[in-house]
Design a protein that fits this description.
Low-confidence stretches of chain A: 137-156
Mean pLDDT of chain A: 82
Distance between the termini of chain A: 43 Å
Oligomer: heterodimer
Radius of gyration of chain B: 55 Å
Mean pLDDT of chain B: 85
Largest sheet of chain A: 5 strands, parallel
Strand content of chain B: 15-25%
Low-confidence stretches of chain B: 1-12
Radius of gyration of chain A: 15 Å
Number of helices of chain A: 6
Strand content of chain A: 5-15%
Structural class of chain A: alpha/beta
Number of strands of chain B: 17
Number of helices of chain B: 15
Chain lengths: 156, 538
């Protein structure tokens, strides 16, 4: 096993979203080391493959991923003793109720719809990171006021 | 069979006396004493015969050689209701039923001198109208020289037999004219009798069938496979009903509705069975055609439904993809514009900053468009959840929520008693939100805004009306109001995505209603939606 210590594993196929997530975490000094993978297969490889990294402290997981989707990755993480205690926050554009239910059924720790506005995005990632890496305060479940996209996301 | 009866009234000569006289001539050679004794014996004998005849239960009468009645016994008088006196001579003819009288009198006149024996059925009718069928038999009485000296007849009451015959004949007519195949069979499956309809599909004569067995007539196969078991079951004492295809020589393949009932003899034992079979091929074919049609229809409905489900699924997938693939770049445009702005910070001129702001604004607006479109496409798919909705309360609470966002505005909001209806509560709330939001938006340039809501009743519908005193619209474009992304106003003046009224239309239509609007430029607008009392039906 690779001894490199990783605080946050970001599973995100969209490079801009990935960069924004990293940017948000970095700006708020959340997690010293981060690893970004672009698809589900790479995520499983990094977690369970021969050159697996040390178990991360937090996993931010998109659902719509190439090769192996987020649900399958989530299921695997929560079914392996070594990783099942790692908090997994689903971070996705979709607010489809069925997806939310499925994610929680597979024991996701939280489900967050990516806000459209930059400011909201920064704030949301900041809260998620702060809660799971530092404090034990739950992240706000209500979408930010004035952020239309997350409002509609949950009613689609 | 002809018969003659009657006599001549008033004549005192009886046939008996004629016979007696003839006999007396035969013995005229004997001595007087002997003759006297013989005469006495004969008289006694005649007397006894007469008494016997008088008391016989059969009607008896006698005529002279001219056919004139000379005697009727008690049974005859009872049968006809005439007295002996009335019957004498030609009086007996009164006893005949008027429909038989002319025929009988004619026959009697024709044959009364020939001495022929006659036999015939005819009717008596008593003076009080009682009709009796009788069999009349007449024989001539002949003298020693074989000459007819008179006639003697009997009448036997056959009314009961006639009734039975009539009933049987009527039943025969029914059986013969029935289009059902009818047959009577014995316990050995041999035909005892069949009706003409039975013969027709077989192309057989009566004698080809009667006396032969089912296996002979219809074939061994159908007999052993179908008929025998049903017939045996029937002969155990129960009615049997079945339907089966039969192959007949003439009519070909026919579908028969068959009833068997036990043929019970006088001793109460089952002696065979009665068949009543009806050709229901036409009905069967219609049923099959109907069934096929129904199946086809069901199949097509299933196909159509599957097609719709597939289309819905596709649309859902499409919406999902749109939500991901269109929003991610917009998020990037917004975020990267902001990051660029932060990066340049002080080096950014006010104009450059304004340009970046426009980029961000438009990206966000497009995000809103996508969200609204997704919500709109989702509206058609969710099931209606019909509950009681207090429209009055709902309209007021929606307005209160919206008013908070426009606290600086002076709005006079009037609601005239709205009814309780049956509708999907969440969707109806969206209707009010869209309509009231619209009304508030398009009255923003009014110093004193008035928004008024009321409802009017139609025979089977409610019509809800929302009237404002806002910017109104060019009435020639009223049909475009409810289209997706249709806007009649400048976006900068009245911002919005143009989906709100399309949502209203879609929701109202899903409830079986319709939407329309009235208005003119700068004269306000009135929006209407009609909902059936019955609630959403689609």
């Amino acid at each position: 096993m690779n001894e490199a210590r990783i605080d946050v594993l970001i599973v995100e196929d969209n490079p801009q979203d990935a960069e924004l997530i990293e940017h948000a975490l970095k700006r708020q000094h959340l997690g010293e080391s981060r690893c970004v993978v672009r698809d589900g297969a790479a995520a499983l490889d990094v977690l369970f493959g021969p050159d697996a990294i040390a178990t991360p402290r937090l996993i931010l997981l998109d659902l719509k991923l190439p090769k192996i989707d987020g649900f399958q990755v989530l299921q695997r993480i929560k079914n392996v003793d070594r990783t099942k205690q790692v908090p997994v926050v689903v971070l996705t554009s979709s607010g489809v109720e069925e997806d939310i239910r499925t994610a929680y059924a597979l024991r996701a720790n939280s489900y967050v719809v990516k806000p459209m506005r930059y400011e909201s995005f920064m704030e949301t990632i900041g809260r998620v990171g702060t809660y799971w890496l530092r404090s034990n305060r739950p992240p706000p479940l209500r979408p930010q006021h004035g952020d239309h996209s997350s409002l509609n996301g949950s009613s689609a | 069979m002809k018969s003659v009866s009657g006599g001549t009234a008033g004549r005192k000569r009886s046939c008996f006396r004629e016979v007696l006289n003839l006999r007396l001539k035969v013995v005229n050679s004997a001595d007087a004493a002997e003759q006297k004794q013989r005469e006495d014996v004969l008289r006694d004998s005649e007397q006894r015969s007469r008494e016997m005849i008088e008391l016989m239960p059969v009607a008896v009468w006698e005529t002279d050689e001219e056919g004139s009645c000379v005697y009727v016994n008690k049974a005859w008088r009872d049968l006809t209701g005439l007295t002996a006196q009335q019957a004498m001579g030609h009086g007996w003819q009164q006893a005949l039923h008027e429909q038989d009288r002319a025929r009988l009198v004619r026959t009697w006149n024709e044959v009364k001198h020939t001495g022929e024996s006659l036999e015939d059925d005819y009717r008596f009718c008593t003076p009080d109208g009682k009709v009796r069928w009788v069999l009349g038999k007449t024989v001539a009485i002949r003298g020693v020289d074989d000459q007819v000296v008179g006639y003697r007849g009997v009448n036997i009451d056959i009314t009961e037999r006639k009734k039975t015959e009539t009933a049987l004949r009527q039943q025969e007519i029914i059986v013969a004219s029935s289009s059902d195949m009818l047959a009577l069979l014995d316990a050995e499956y041999t035909y005892l009798d069949v009706n003409p309809a039975f013969l027709k599909p077989l192309g057989a004569a009566y004698d080809d069938v009667v006396g032969r067995t089912v296996a002979d007539v219809l074939g061994k196969k159908i007999f052993s496979e179908t008929i025998k078991s049903n017939a045996d079951h029937c002969m155990n004492g129960t009615d049997v009903h079945y339907q089966e295809w039969f192959d007949f020589p003439v009519s070909g393949r026919v579908f028969m509705d068959v009833h068997y009932s036990p043929y019970v003899g006088a001793d109460g034992r089952v002696k065979g069975f009665v068949v009543d079979a009806r050709d229901i091929t036409q009905r069967k074919r219609s049923e099959e055609a109907l069934h096929a049609l129904t199946l086809d229809l069901e199949r097509r409905v299933i196909e159509r439904t599957q097609g719709l489900e597939a289309a819905n699924k596709k649309l859902e997938n499409f919406s999902y993809a749109v939500s991901h693939d269109l929003k991610a770049p917009l998020r990037a445009i917004d975020a990267y514009s902001k990051m660029l702005e932060d990066e340049l910070a002080e080096r950014l001129s006010p104009e450059a900053k304004r340009l970046l702001d426009v980029v961000r604004q438009k990206a966000q607006h497009m995000g809103h468009l996508i969200d609204d479109l997704l919500a709109f496409s989702g509206l058609g798919r969710t099931e209606l959840n019909l509950v009681g909705v207090d429209m009055d309360e709902m309209a007021r609470s929606v307005f209160a929520e919206l008013a908070v966002q426009h606290s600086g505005r002076k709005i006079k909001f009037t609601v005239h008693d709205l009814p309780m209806i049956r509708a999907d509560s969440a969707l109806m709330r969206q209707v009010w939100t869209n309509l009231l939001d619209n009304a508030i938006k398009f009255t923003r340039h009014r110093v004193a805004t008035r928004i008024e809501i009321w409802c009017r009743n139609e025979p089977t519908n409610y019509v809800f009306c929302v009237k404002d005193n806002g910017a109104g619209f060019e009435s020639e474009y009223r049909d475009k109001l409810f289209g997706v992304f249709q806007r009649l106003h400048d976006e900068d003046e009245f911002p919005g995505t143009g989906v709100g009224l399309a949502n209203v239309k879609q929701i109202v239509e899903r409830h079986g209603g319709e939407t329309w609007a009235d208005g003119d430029v700068d004269r306000g607008a009135t929006f209407f939606f009609r909902l059936p009392y019955a609630g959403g039906l689609t």
